[in-house]
Design goal:
By secondary structure, this protein is an alpha+beta fold. The protein has 6 helices and 5 strands, in the order E-E-H-E-H-E-E-H-H-H-H. Among the domains are: 95 residues, GIY-YIG endonuclease; 34 residues. Helix content is 39%, strand content 14%.
Length: 185
């Protein structure tokens, strides 16, 4: 029998909690033993894999529809502000329209930026070498109409005419070589 529900998982080792809802076609609050949610929190995923016996799951509410379950979960997330609660495994607050971004308002550390940058070094851009479909005449005319009256300032034109620095020219050359190499692959 289909019965969406909202639940709480309490970690007896860390004293942290997770609030979620189960709304899939096979959900049944009487059979909740092996489902602890689909969390993005690394420590919680690890706890589910390695020590599920330390997790205590409690059904908070049984709902009539998926929409009701999500709305109830969203209300709990908002009231408890689980995204910002250090004792919560939830990394984002549920809303009626989906989850809040867990990066909104957060700044990346220089270490995080360097790590992301290092991971991308040597890899071509995701759309490099992909050919776009030619634009239809209708699309081209819309773009043309949108750009009518938008002229570049004299300062902008002057900046475009400026000769490139040696470093800039070297970067352009390296990018073109990488593009040529990726086309050969």
């Amino acid at each position: 029998m289909y019965q969406p529900y909202v639940y709480n998982v309490y970690d007896t080792v860390t004293a942290m909690y997770y609030i979620g809802s189960k709304t899939s076609e096979d959900c049944n609050p009487d059979n909740t033993r092996n489902y602890y949610g689909s969390p993005r929190h690394k420590s919680f995923r690890e706890a589910i894999k390695t020590r599920p016996e330390t997790l205590v799951k409690t059904v908070i509410a049984v709902c009539q529809t998926k929409k009701d379950a999500i709305a109830f979960e969203a209300r709990l997330h908002k009231e408890l502000d689980v995204k910002n609660d250090p004792m919560s495994y939830n990394m984002a607050n549920q809303t009626d329209a989906g989850f809040t971004s867990n990066n909104k308002g957060r700044k990346m550390s220089e270490e995080q930026k360097a790590k992301l940058s290092a991971a991308k070094v040597g890899k071509p851009a995701p759309n490099l070498g992909k050919k776009l479909k030619p634009l239809s005449e209708e699309h081209r005319s819309k773009i043309s109409k949108a750009n009518l009256g938008n002229s570049k300032s004299e300062e902008h034109k002057a900046n475009m005419r400026k000769p490139k620095t040696l470093e800039h020219r070297a970067n352009i050359s390296a990018a073109r070589k990488l593009m040529a190499r990726s086309k050969k692959l």
